[in-house]
Amino acid sequence: MEVKTFLIQFEKSLIANGFPSDSARVHTLKIAKSLSDSDKIKIHNMQSADGVRRLAENYLSHVRSNVEQNKRSALDADTKTIARQFSKSAQDDEDDDVKIKTKGSTKVMEKVPSADEVKDDASTIKVDSVATSKPEKVKLTERGRENYRNWMLSKGIGYAALGILIAVASFVVYALISVLIAALVALLIGVAVIGCIGFLAGLIYGIITLFSVTPEGIYEIGLSLIIIAVTLASSIGLYNLAIRIVPILWKRFTRLLKEKIAEYKEFLNDVRRECNEQ
Fold this sequence. Notes:
By secondary structure, the protein is an all-alpha fold.
């Protein structure tokens, strides 16, 4: 099972077991960021979604126990706490799944990997469904609307200005990446054209000179071969930069922007909750 698939099924299992969708999204996203550095092989060996479901159930029991003890919302847990709860849940599930007794017989089940056996590689793992799932907007009470309006008129203006500044900066970043790609493509075309002209000119001149001054003709032909070799190498490098490497910057920046937007929405939801409680 791919790590992306595992994270998607884990979030769905949390929601299916009564966990609020916004909390499930936040917890899954934080788990994806905090998984320990270890082999991804065991998570790829998971063949059944049942193991993910049982792992989610164990995780929920730890989360609910922690919420009852600390008397706070599940959304308030930090990444370190969530990672520790996930690690304990995975270990509990691993211990329970070694042998499961059913009707007097013992059935050996697939072991669910612990969190220490999974690595979240940001360059290869995409948590699209986690990042794109929309948190539910907290509804305001009558008192909450008044408090929220006061907050918007005081502190909210600063956050709105910051949001506009970030939007402008994001537009500039996207524009720069686009210009960089276009510049690399233009440079690629220029290098290819100049290199081909240099190669053909040297080759033709070398062949003509070969019949009159043989050493000079051989030299010109050899120089033309060097020119075409350098042109090919440069063209391949520029192509990989323009088509493969630079677009990665676009994707990663987009992913970062989505995460920050999700965090900003969660922040606003927290503010709305506080306004309702005041």
